[in-house]
Specification:
Number of domains: 2
CATH superfamily of the largest domain: Tetratricopeptide repeat domain
Radius of gyration: 33 Å
Helix content: 55-70%
Structural class: mainly alpha
Strand order of the largest sheet: 2-6-7
Number of strands: 10
Number of helices: 22
Distance between the termini: 107 Å
Shape: elongated
CATH topology of the largest domain: Serine Threonine Protein Phosphatase 5, Tetratricopeptide repeat
Length: 492
């Protein structure tokens, strides 16, 4: 008996290329109308992914079976009574009635990546008698029993009823009579093959090309109501939804958020992948403090339309206000991928890094803001504060001076610079700046507090006491002012 030679990685990779080409070729033949290619697709899929005690799948031999697989299916909802077809559309009308693989036609909100075991064992078909089949069931029944690699004299009853007796229960009514709509298992295998190709071939895409009057999504997903995806009525459907969204936007303008949410719920129930409806419902939920619902809606909007910078911004703002700076940063960075030179985003990211006590990164992003727009005084003010926290007082003063060149009446910058000069024991310059701040804004209690501290550091206790009293007269609860005043009164 000849001994066996272990295949090299290159050999295995070549086999992978060949199997993928088999799948592509069979998909093309299937799409041309030869639906029996589903069995050959099942055989190639089995070769790639199915492991037993006696056989080792090709992906497992290549040690890549642990990757995430594209799941392009609708979820099964047990509470609904209709049969479930999670991988296909049901086409109705002229010139074609029947099941068809969704390919890349499934709304993005339902596309995700999951681990192989979950993908392989996920329920994708439930017939009218509530018999459930997974991807594994469909592929192995077609490959091992129904002519793919073997013809079994005794076919699995559930699979036999599905493939031969219309156990899904859908009927086509024509002038020639009624007939059961069959082929759900074949079109489902075609969609499984598409998921495999998308998983293993980067950038692989295939749009659905079919002529029919109406495509129906899975009834379980659409609350047992047929959703029109491609038909003569689609424009009317979207138009009706748009009207609801526009009315909701008007309600948001007048701050009637709860009524806006009601209209948007109605819009979404009619058309479940309208990004703008989720966006504005998220906005309204945020305004009524339903933060979790707002984030959920914003994410659904992004799943449909990933080009929405404002949506990432709004999610980031929610996290920022809740002091969840890392989550905020993740969302702002996603938005930044869409607009590298967005000043608002760069500025917000600078703030987050400062909140995270990473002034080096904060400076990196604020410098990008200044490079884009060197005339915005708030960028120099922010950078000055960062330098102050890093105790680089020379650069702090330089930036505060830049602010005052652009905006010479910014009283708070005079206050900030006065504090820096005080740290440097340059009390004359410090008093000059704080006096200018008070001249510009005599009702700001903090400025008197700053002047009180300068006098205290200088040793002029009486002037310090007078300024503490002036600060507390304007703001009796000013932080630390009462405590510092009491201390000076004790040591006077």
């Amino acid at each position: 008996m000849s001994k066996k030679i272990k295949l090299s990685i290159d050999d295995l990779k070549k086999h992978l290329e060949v199997q993928l080409q088999y799948i592509k070729s069979s998909c093309e033949l299937f799409d041309s109308g030869i639906d029996e290619e589903a069995n050959r697709l099942a055989v190639s899929i089995r070769v790639l992914v199915h492991d037993t005690n006696n056989s080792n799948s090709l992906l497992n031999q290549l040690n890549i079976k642990n990757i995430d697989f594209y799941d392009m299916s609708f979820e099964y909802k047990q509470k609904y009574s209709a049969s479930h077809f999670g991988l296909v559309w049901l086409a109705l009308g002229d010139p074609f009635t029947g099941y068809c693989a969704m390919l890349d036609g499934i709304p993005n909100i339902y596309v995700k990546k999951i681990k192989f075991t979950e993908w392989w064992n996920k329920i994708v078909i439930v017939d009218k008698d509530k018999n459930k089949l997974t991807r594994k069931d469909l592929v192995l029944k077609a490959a091992n029993e129904d002519g793919g690699a073997h013809v079994d004299p005794n076919l699995n009853e559930v699979y036999a009823n599905l493939s031969r007796k219309n156990s899904m229960g859908w009927i086509s009514h024509t002038i020639n009579g009624d007939s059961g709509i069959e082929g759900v298992e074949k079109s489902s295998i075609r969609q499984i093959a598409h998921e495999i190709l998308k998983t293993l071939i980067s950038g692989y895409e295939k749009e659905l090309e079919i002529e029919t009057e109406l495509l129906l999504g899975c009834p379980n997903i659409w609350n047992a109501e047929a959703i029109e995806l491609k038909s003569n009525n689609i424009n009317k459907l979207i138009s009706n939804v748009s009207v609801l969204v526009e009315n909701a936007k008007k309600l948001i303008k007048i701050k009637n958020y709860n009524e806006a949410i009601r209209l948007l719920n109605k819009a979404i129930s009619r058309f479940a992948y309208y990004a703008e409806a989720y966006f504005y419902r998220g906005y309204a939920n945020d305004k009524v403090n339903n933060k979790n619902e707002a984030i959920s809606d914003y994410r659904k909007s992004i799943n449909i339309d990933k080009s929405q910078i404002i949506t990432y911004l709004n999610i980031g703002e929610i996290y920022f206000k809740n002091n969840d700076f890392n989550e905020a940063l993740d969302n702002f960075n996603e938005a930044l991928k869409l607009s590298q030179d967005n000043e608002e985003l760069l500025y917000k990211i600078s703030w987050i890094y400062r909140k995270l006590n990473d002034n080096t990164k904060a400076l990196e992003y604020i410098n990008r803001c200044i490079k884009i727009n060197s005339d915005n005084s708030k960028y120099y003010l922010f950078r000055g504060v960062c330098y102050d926290e890093m105790q680089d007082y020379k650069k702090t003063i330089e930036d505060y001076e830049r602010v005052l060149v652009i905006n010479p009446t910014n009283s708070f910058v005079f206050n900030n610079r006065a504090n820096i000069y005080s740290k440097l024991n340059k009390f004359d310059k410090s008093l000059e700046d704080i006096n200018q701040a008070i001249k510009l804004n005599p009702q700001e209690a903090v400025f008197y507090l700053t002047r009180a501290r300068i006098y205290s550091r200088k040793g002029n206790i009486m002037n310090a006491i007078d300024n503490y009293r002036s600060a507390l007269k304007i703001n009796p609860v000013l932080e630390n002012a009462k405590k510092e005043l009491d201390y000076l009164l004790e040591i006077q």
